[in-house]
Amino acid sequence: MMDELKNQAQSVVDLAMKLGASAADGFVREEDSFSVRVRKGDVETLKEAVSRSLRLRIFLGRKVASSQTSDLSPAVVDRLVKETIEMAQLISDDESSGLPDHSFFPMQLADLNLADPSWEELTPEDRIDLARRAEAAAAAADVSITNSDGGAFEWERSRTVLVNSLGFAGAYESTMGYVASSPIAERNGAMQQDSWFSIGRHRHQLETPEEVGQRAAQRVLRRVGARRISTCVVPVVFDPLTARTLVKHIFEAVSGDAIYRKRSFLAGKLGESIAGKKVNLVDDALRVGGLGSRPFDDEGVETQITSIVESGTLQNYLHSAYTGRRLSVRPTGNGTRTGSGSIAVGPTNFYMQPGETSEEEIIASVKTGLYVIELMGSGVNLVNGDYSRGATGIWIENGKLTYPVHEITIAGNLREMLQGISMVGNDIVFLGSVCSPSVKIDSMTVSGE
Amino acid sequence: MHSSIFLTTHGVTTQDLENYLAAALERGGDYADLFFELKINHSITFEEHILKGATKAVNLGVGVRVLSGEKTGYAYSEDLNRNSVLKAAKTAAFIAKSASAGGTLKIDSPKLREHDLYSMASLPADLEIGAKLLLLRQADEAAHAYDKRIQQVQATYVDETRHILLVTSDGRCVWDVQPMVRLNVLCMAEENGSRQTGHQGAGGRQTLEIFRDTLDPRNLAREAARQAIQLLSAADAPAGTMEVVLGPGWPGILLHEAIGHGLEADFNRKRTSAFSGLVGQRVASDLCTVVDDGTIPLRRGSLNIDDEGNPTKQTVLIEKGVLQGYLQDRLNSKLMKADVTGNGRRQGYDHVPLPRMTNTFMLAGQSTPDEIIRSVKKGLYAGHFGGGQVDITSGKFVFSASEAYLIEDGKLTSPVRGASLIGDGPTVLKQVSMVGNDLQLDQGIGICGKEGQSIPVGVGLPTIKIQEITVGGTRR
Fold this sequence. Notes:
Helix content of chain B: 10-25%
Radius of gyration of chain A: 24 Å
Number of strands of chain A: 20
Helix content of chain A: 10-25%
Distance between the termini of chain B: 61 Å
Strand content of chain B: 35-45%
Structural class of chain B: alpha+beta
Number of strands of chain B: 23
Oligomer: heterodimer
Number of domains of chain B: 2
Shape of chain A: globular
């Protein structure tokens, strides 16, 4: 199977070179996927498919164009190669453009243990049952859970192949399973929904559906009876799910794409203190069994562990071959294929390293403040750090969680927010390629009534 | 074009369609449909005074859906060869378990869609790159010429040509070809180490002729540049509840988030929406009439047929403050015993259709925009927005202003930086105390996300005044 995909990528690169490209790469991904959503015990949607996509870059000297197709019939692929070459002819020269230098390709591929064949032992009925159990566990947790957005199970196996005209050819396989539960609770006619999920490359990494359902129930029950509060300036504690949105903003702000364009509040800050002393951040492509792990990036560069922030000081930005050349540094193995075949900088396992305090200790350190459990909207400006988002949370008084609050916003500027991180929790959960433990920010504006 | 591209050039026959549907229903589903899609996308990016990138994407596939009661089975194939599509049909059929319904299906020859909202004579897929490049050059030059503090300009052009063919087990066989173009300009201004950006975009279901007059790339570029420059001198936004005036056009994102999503039928059938059970009740002031209309020619959110083959419609969601009904797709309309409204949409062949919006807007009222602003003693005027989001179940929604001004004694005074506004969907429109006579639809830039599926939509609004809503700035 891998050989077939490799041959497909190789033949596209060969054709591009024959038709006059000076360099080319072909990226093929095949995904086998299964998903089921169960609601009130019955299957609601069941979906299964195999999909393939070919993504292609063609270079004519320092010009580049890219393309993508799900139609892999030879006639369509041949025509697409020709059209991509024609597009490249019209592009302007860009001196940083080109394949990565061959010295960046891995000599041999790290074994990151990304695939678990034992998922395939699960029959469709087994998979439906996982979703059903996750939903049922939440429903059974409390009488105020009156409705459901369902339980879900998803599985995917993906095979990735990259071939380029410098002689690199690599492939890897990965699997992923996911269980989720989304209960709805009601009190006095006001409904609240929340969810919890578990995700992993290996079966043993997943929480049981009962654990997922019970945790989803706890999460929704704590929102019931939410009220509004008055505008104030207080410490804000982010739970691991909301904290990872902050970490995502940091990723976007250290991405080479944003840095070379100066479209980041962290541009020009290497070596400077950008966050509280307890903040350590890393991009680690080599985590064994990690959701963002990969042996080489989507243009063939060997992946690595890159320190981003150490004790609050900014250490490195993340780069593709292009942004590395633009800024005269090595690529960091973060080249990521966009849907249209071009390369952008993407995270691998980008996370804030856990600290030593528990979530309870962090909450206990707050006299009056907000514990944030949901953030909404797009009010983040990475160019200057302005931050304003809708929030739902639980009010903290005298170091204890009290009542839920909603219809509020939290606002500040990311520069000051990151400097204001004074506590980092020990409670990181790896739920994707960007993760965080709980964090406390000393002061933000909470806007309400 | 006299017939669908799938029959004329991809070799699909009427007999094939009948066979696929028969396979989809072999385990006794209530209904099955086939969704053939060919989507061709182009993009070019002009940045740092040069054409930096060009991309092309071709996506072809067929999705097979089988409905059995409330259950949906779904599979797709990216290969139109007979064995692959039959395999997908049998996979989708797995959902149904009763004995075969039997009988034979008869497919009529394909019909062209009932509306004629956009041209099929010239399609974006056939455009030469030179003409697109010219538009981006014009935008780049105009933005840089606007002010020397404009340090960076990124102009992007994207287009899509989408062929679809719908075949259903209740005998519908319809096809459409849906064009789309869009142009975006992003400007970054810099002064004394402070950086601000401005964005402006426009588009619709046309080709390049749309980029004239106010949508001329030079005008879009000047507007993006103006926003970036204006923000350089902006103060922090205020925090707390206050009177807010929303400008016309794109601020209609308020309706999309606060009202539209909560009125999609799936959430209401499952009673997971904050609007569940509120039909016939007052959810807005009597100044408010809100519609979803997929039949406006050339608009980004318009469609001749939805992705289940039904013609789009104008659906009144709120009439003079009273909730009228929901946005329906086939599955939910059957289960709720309501009429379809032509709102079944999907991102592509690899996704199930869901009830979704098309163009969602509020009808014009009587007040002039000037009267509305003059009526505010102390408040906020917001004219440009980024994105928004809603929690369907609690009804809380946000939308983020990217350019706003303080209103003091009936006049716009200092510009303020971006801030999110948060409110409650089922009650926010009760706070609407004035509605302007200046309804505008947005310029054709909206993208709506739901359950991992992104689709183009439109919004619209006249100038309106909201008596009280929470503004998420930092200045108390």
